């Protein structure tokens, strides 16, 4: 039990937010269940829904925890697989057997259906945490059912009355567990380390929870990753040939950018925008075509998506410190400030890239929803994206290196972006493109330029660091 206790504590240490959220849902379920036992018949449904939500959230966290535990080195521990099985049995006893005993004591109907439903929700949560890539294929089923709610309700009533439904749910739960856990139990060689500054968007659901945890990607992700690597290699070769033919300052700066930002060359930018456009079109035609909403929201989301790249900057530069020593010796700067200025100037290319991305995403959204005034959104998005990119680059360039500090800075940036966008949208709508846009540009761009120049000056005064970060 000592091993199970330590495994259980890992979830509290690594994902306390999920633990607290699951506990709140469980407490709400207990409260409504107590009201239901006192005779309030309407309280039974919210109690069941809250408990199902608590189960799902808890096991999403457990799945993410398993991803960090099941690394190649862990399988060298004696009886590691057996200990995981024992831990799973304890977890099932808490979240499945105990509620089932309560159901039997209360003599509720459909005991087999409830038992298999609990197992299915547990397996679904584990799949979402262990293997988010496979878990994404579960959501299309709910999207399809959302198109035909009457048919979904009829299927639900027929499923409750059918004696085969528990067996089907049990089979689906077993399949989900296999899809989620089996890849974690394979012992594979660790892949070659990738640049912390890469920008593919493929690892958003594959965040590492512990040092050494492998990045697990499917066939589609590996193919797209290979395309990104090919674009970065071609861009580097072009930059090298150009520098050899005429070694001047501008081409030297391009080489530095290709090293620091491997996936921010023109080909990779087009590929990234195309992939986002495909997913946006699919989401719109699958979900949003039946809903009515204010088109201006699309511009706000596009700006927020474009600046979501910058939190990676602080973390990436921190992780790249040992490798940056080679770049320092290669550049051979006369002063430390010259080296720091080279790095900060190389990162400036992220500002036009972020602004361009926001404009493309806004234009795509305006076309999809047939916005009545797309130029209104495009003007505000262009101004806010440019100024927000400068501010975000400045804050993350000299900001805190701790996870909590980076999170706070990111929240501040996102809140500022939303306030600037909606304030600017109102200004342009009230005073016109020229007056409203001019005031918006004067305020936001002045702040962005001021933040960037102050951050660059501070960054140049700092001594370069090449020590390995403590993770």
TrEMBL record:
Transmembrane segments: 43-61, 84-105, 111-130, 137-156, 168-187, 269-287, 346-369, 375-395, 407-427, 433-455
Superkingdom of the organism of origin: Bacteria
Keywords: Membrane, Transmembrane, Transmembrane helix
Name of the protein: Uncharacterized protein
Species annotation: Dyella acidiphila
